[in-house]
Structure formats: structure tokens, C-alpha cells
């Protein structure tokens, strides 16, 4: 601890010193707050995940936001014919590669959309890689 004897001569200096320290602390606090905000805004969503999907050999007609065709998919490790469900969303970078007649095993990044439109999906799918592509028999 530093002890300073305050006199009429040292008082203006101490006021200046306290103001300067306080001013630097404000700047530091503001800078630190901005860095924390920036870090929070750039952090990834904990609910984003990479998953493997089986994609069936045929898309089927379905009604989501409008009439469309849907993928039949499942996240199981092996194909269970009773476990297919409809995926109403597109799979970014996969839609162009998909060929009817082939069963695919793909790895996708599944992204949770925090504030989706009222008639939109809360998930986004992006192709990570095609694991396998086999002709359906």
C-alpha cells in the first residue's frame, strides 16, 4: 500500500492522477466490454452438429411450405426400412449431386437457426462429404 501525505500542493496532482486512472479504467472497461460482445457474437452455436444421414434412392412428393419433393432420410448407423422420415429442407451442396436410384450415406453439418421465419425451418443442412453412393437394387 502506498501512503501519500495530502497537502494543498499535492491535492491538484492527486485529483489529476485519480481522474487519469479513472479515465483509463473507463477506456479499459469499454474496450473489455466490446471484446466480450465481439466474442459472444462470433461464438458458434452449441447445438450445431455434424451427423451422418442415409438418403433413400427416391425423393417423394410432400407438402411443407408448399408442394415439393422431400428426401427420405434416417440418422441410424444401419438402414432400417421402417425408420425413414421426410426431410422437408434442402441439403446445401448435395441437391445438385443427388441422383435418383442411389442410396447415399452423407455427412452433414446440421445448423440450428435461432430465429427462423414463421413458415421456415429451424434447421439448415450443409453437405460435409459423401461417405458412400450405392445403386439401389
TrEMBL record:
Superkingdom per UniProt: Bacteria
InterPro entries according to UniProt: DUF4377 (IPR025485)
Organism annotation: Pseudalgibacter alginicilyticus
Protein name: DUF4377 domain-containing protein
Pfam families noted in UniProt: DUF4377
DUF4377 domain location: 54-133
Amino acid at each position: 500500500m502506498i501512503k501519500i501525505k495530502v497537502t494543498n500542493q499535492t491535492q491538484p496532482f492527486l485529483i489529476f492522477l485519480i481522474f487519469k486512472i479513472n479515465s483509463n479504467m473507463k477506456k479499459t472497461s469499454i474496450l473489455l466490454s466490446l471484446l466480450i460482445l465481439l466474442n459472444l457474437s462470433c461464438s458458434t452455436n452449441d447445438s450445431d452438429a455434424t451427423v451422418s444421414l442415409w438418403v433413400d434412392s427416391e425423393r417423394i412428393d410432400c407438402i411443407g411450405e408448399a408442394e415439393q419433393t422431400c428426401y427420405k432420410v434416417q440418422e441410424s448407423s444401419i438402414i432400417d426400412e421402417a425408420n425413414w422420415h421426410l426431410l422437408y429442407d434442402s441439403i446445401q451442396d448435395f441437391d445438385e449431386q443427388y441422383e435418383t436410384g442411389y442410396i447415399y450415406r452423407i455427412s452433414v453439418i446440421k445448423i440450428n437457426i435461432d430465429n427462423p421465419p414463421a413458415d421456415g425451418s429451424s434447421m439448415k443442412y450443409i453437405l460435409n462429404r459423401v461417405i458412400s453412393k450405392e445403386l439401389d437394387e
